[in-house]
Automatic annotation (TrEMBL):
It comes from Sedimentitalea todarodis. The keyword Nucleotide-binding applies. This is ABC transporter ATP-binding protein. It comes from the Bacteria. GO terms for molecular function: ATP binding.
Length: 256
């Protein structure tokens, strides 16, 4: 399922946070969202997820305007992993992940064994087998982050939005999560600070001061000029001798 927004904007009081964001994420595409701190990535993701109401413009899931959809119907199609997600202190890991099945439960469609299987597979996907009975507040930052990703996977979404999903993770789990998302049959938008990780995406969208300033294939978008102008760093592209892929080596703008 595709995800699009047209002329999307959000202002708080007099301050414009996001303006005129127009974007179409194609079915099955993995789109990296990059930009400096405060450029509006989380705000855009929250609007795309239907959590933040835009001040202007609209979001469509496939061809359907999100404003015409009930929250439950949105949650059956789309999951968001927020940057600083929190949850009830006394909840166990299993209960936190089970919340992902809530949009599918009704008086007639109660919990089934297939829901248990989905929850178990989501926990296994993020390497949290054996953590089922642990209480949320006893988990480390990276373990909590993986629980939130498992909760989103348990939603079995067509569209998965992730806000810096790797920021608390050790390098092994960072790579595992990125490759997991890559391999899922979903349309994804993933906010990332690590531009080498962003190179793994199909396309990259760059935000600057609340605006989308570039959108396209990683090699076209992440140029040395872009690194300098948007991020204020010198970066040089090199070829990884191991597999021939591009990697960026950074220097500070002053010393580069
Ligand atoms: N509720 C709010 N009220 C006022 N300002 C806000 C609010 N939410 C976000 N902002 C401001 O909007 C700007 C964009 O914030 P946002 O969190 O979307 O940026 P970001 O690109 O995700 O940043 P980071 O990389 O630091 O996570 C920031 O300057 C932030 O301070």
């Amino acid at each position: 399922m595709s995800l699009s927004c047209n002329a999307l904007g959000w202002s708080v009081k007099e301050k414009t946070i996001v303006s005129d964001a127009t974007l179409k994420v194609r079915t099955g595409e993995m789109l990296g969202l990059v930009g400096p701190n405060g450029s509006g990535k989380s705000s855009l993701l929250r609007m795309l997820a239907g959590i933040q109401k835009p001040s202007s413009g609209r979001v469509c899931l496939g061809e359907t305007p999100m404003s015409n959809m009930r929250q439950r119907d949105i949650a059956r199609k789309l999951a968001l992993v927020e940057q600083h997600a929190n949850t009830e202190d006394r909840i166990t890991v299993r209960e936190a992940v089970e919340l992902g099945r809530t949009p599918f439960l009704t008086a007639l469609r109660t919990w089934r064994s297939e829901d248990d299987a989905i929850v178990a597979s989501a926990l296994a996907a993020v390497d949290l087998k054996g953590f089922e009975d642990r209480l949320w507040h006893t988990l480390s930052g990276g373990e909590r982050q993986r629980v939130q990703i498992a909760r989103a996977l348990a939603q079995a979404p067509d569209i998965l939005l992730l806000d810096e999903p790797t920021n608390h993770l050790d390098i092994g789990h960072q790579l595992a999560i990125l490759h997991l998302v890559r391999g899922l049959p979903v349309t994804s938008v993933i906010a990332l600070h690590d531009l080498n990780q962003a190179l793994l995406c199909d396309r990259i969208c760059v935000m600057e001061a609340g605006r989308i300033v570039a959108l396209g294939a990683p090699s076209e978008i992440l140029t040395e000029a872009r690194l300098r102008d948007t991020f204020g760093v010198c970066g040089h592209f090199m070829t990884d001798p191991f597999d021939g892929t591009a990697i960026i080596r950074f220097h500070s703008a002053r010393t580069g």
